[in-house]
Recover the amino acids of this structure.
């Protein structure tokens, strides 16, 4: 029973991080039909910006340090997201989508290699301090880290807040209008460029949240952490139904639980295969799922984008 609860908790923790990355991908695609492949590296930049905040503002209380980490991470990620939209996406609006994909992929490489080269000792993994309470909550014989609960609750709150913004505000209404028909939205007086910039800011801020949550969860960051997280986030958005926020969330949790199942089952079934191959198991399951449901889990049920 304790093992089952531990697997459930691991799946939820990874799922909320993957879901936030996947929602960013689906926001970009839903509004502009573009795949922003530097999204994972924006996540990395956000986590390194958060770590830098701790060296710039040292010797603060834990909660002030967490606030500084979040502010630095969100501001830097929002600026880089706005830069990508203004100088990569909008100028290439009429170009083939493969050009945009390549441009963002190369820009992601620039971000990643810049961190490796210019951040002090950037080629090696960095320890991220444990700022959250380290107490454990007992549920029978099972003990749950309190910091995990905080990260999980925070992640669900951010997802809930995003859902409110998209569905209940004028900003969300404008983003959905552009996603449905950008030309009609322009004719109705919606400033297209302004809302594209805001969409990229929102998506990049989500990546920053995911990067900080991942850093608090593993207490370690590295210059190439966004590579795998970006691929997993994009995969989650695809299997959930690219362009559908709720599909991206569902895809993130599905991929996380496939990883957890793979990590626990593989060593039991084939002792020569270590749990480190959990990603291989998850990606294999995703390939099988995509052959059965090529349009994604929710794409056929919910036709509206974003």
């Amino acid at each position: 029973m304790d093992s089952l609860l531990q697997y459930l908790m691991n799946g939820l923790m990874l799922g909320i991080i993957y879901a936030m990355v996947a929602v960013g991908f689906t926001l970009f695609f839903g509004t502009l039909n573009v795949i922003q492949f530097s999204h994972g590296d924006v996540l990395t930049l956000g986590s390194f910006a958060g770590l830098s905040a701790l060296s710039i503002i040292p010797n603060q209380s834990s909660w002030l340090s967490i606030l500084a980490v979040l502010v630095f991470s969100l501001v830097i990620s929002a600026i880089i997201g706005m830069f990508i939209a203004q100088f990569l996406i909008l100028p290439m609006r009429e170009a083939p989508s493969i050009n945009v994909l390549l441009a963002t992929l190369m820009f992601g490489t620039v971000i990643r290699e810049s961190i490796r080269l210019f951040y002090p000792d950037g080629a090696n993994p960095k320890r991220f301090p444990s700022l959250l309470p380290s107490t454990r909550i007992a549920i029978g014989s099972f003990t749950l880290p309190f910091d995990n609960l905080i990260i999980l609750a925070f992640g669900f709150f951010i997802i809930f807040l995003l859902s409110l913004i998209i569905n209940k505000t004028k900003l969300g209404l404008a983003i959905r209008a552009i996603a449905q028909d950008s030309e009609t939205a322009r004719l109705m007086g919606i400033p297209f460029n302004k809302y594209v910039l805001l969409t990229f800011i929102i998506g990049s801020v989500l990546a920053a949240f995911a990067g900080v949550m991942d850093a608090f969860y593993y207490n370690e960051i590295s210059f190439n952490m966004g590579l795998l997280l970006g691929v997993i986030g994009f995969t989650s958005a695809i299997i959930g139904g690219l362009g559908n926020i709720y599909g991206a969330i569902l895809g993130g949790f599905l991929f996380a639980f496939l990883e957890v199942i793979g990590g626990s089952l593989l060593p039991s079934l084939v002792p020569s295969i270590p749990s480190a191959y959990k990603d291989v198991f998850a990606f294999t399951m995703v390939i099988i799922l995509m052959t059965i449901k090529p349009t994604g889990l929710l794409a056929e049920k919910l036709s509206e984008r974003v």
In short: The CA atoms of residues 136 and 145 lie 4 Å apart. The longest strand covers residues 136-139.
